[in-house]
DNA sequence: GCTTGCCTTGACGTGCACGTGAAGGTTTAG
DNA sequence: CTAAACCTTCACGTGCACGTCAAGGCAAGC
């Protein structure tokens, strides 16, 4: 399939796919006229990138997964480098959760500090 | 005090303070030669901005707090508009926590799916 | 009085990440 | 025949919070 078809199947744009190629994440066979030619395996790669991005990974983070799939593994996360990225991302997420919980406590304390209905005639409690 | 002194006291830069002024967050008296002249109240405003930014608020979000302080209130968060910003930020934080927890579960599941020590001779479990 | 170091304004640049847009051309599909 | 899809490269966009540079005016110590 050509780039437009792959974009449609993956729910992205041809521009993004060319950008992935420029980043070395995606390669394409070329037809004699220079058009990119993709197969199901490439679609799999794009989906892998998308699912990793969906959990907050950067494009750079997806490299080991792509390499793992290219190396013939069934899933992109069965290689050591991929698992290391998982662990790093997990640590990031944990740190972010800690920070957000601290912020949350702060906000709750501030909101509780004063009665929200102190001036009910101006700001009724129906928002 | 002049802008350099205020910047030092607040632990920021003269650039940032001028930027705040351009955004209407900070105003300054001017000496006859055109220098900005600040007092303790202005320092208080800058500290308010900083503490709000520390809990993830944008500069725009700080406007109601600044207005509240300017209106003569003792704390910037005692006005309805400020409290509304608190609530909005709290909702954002809660949404972010939910999302991060989902991501966390995903990552844990993926890491547990395969034995991390499947290839111990290459990747020992001491990281 | 001269150097050093404040201060003024305005326009534009930076960093990050992930693309998007435009120009200018060829190929394919109907 | 024409419109849609494809190709290339380079540069620009997005959002936020400033930073940098230019070109010059004031102040204070020695």
From TrEMBL, chains A, B:
Name the record gives this protein: MerR family transcriptional regulator
InterPro entries: DNA-bd_dom_put_sf, MerR-type_HTH_dom, MerR_fam
Organism from which the protein derives: Lentzea cavernae
Keywords: DNA-binding, Transcription, Transcription regulation
Domain (HTH merR-type): residue spans on this chain: 1-68
Keyword Transcription among UniProt keywords: yes
Key word Coiled coil present: no
Pfam families: MerR_1
Classification lineage: Bacteria, Bacillati, Actinomycetota, Actinomycetes, Pseudonocardiales
PANTHER family: HEAVY METAL-DEPENDENT TRANSCRIPTIONAL REGULATOR HI_0293-RELATED, REDOX-CYCLING DRUG-SENSING TRANSCRIPTIONAL ACTIVATOR SOXR
């Amino acid at each position: 399939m050509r780039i437009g078809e792959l974009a449609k199947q993956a729910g992205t744009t041809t521009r993004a796919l060319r950008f992935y190629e420029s980043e070395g994440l995606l390669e394409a066979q070329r037809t004699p006229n220079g058009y990119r030619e993709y197969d199901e395996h490439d679609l799999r790669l794009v989906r892998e990138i998308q699912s990793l991005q969906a959990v907050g990974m950067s494009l750079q983070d997806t490299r080991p997964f792509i390499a793992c799939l290219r190396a013939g593994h069934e899933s992109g996360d069965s290689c050591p480098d991929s698992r290391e990225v998982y662990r790093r991302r997990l640590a990031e997420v944990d740190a972010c959760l800690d920070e957000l919980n601290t912020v949350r406590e702060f906000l709750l304390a501030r909101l509780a500090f004063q009665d929200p209905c102190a001036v009910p005639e101006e700001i009724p409690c129906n928002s």
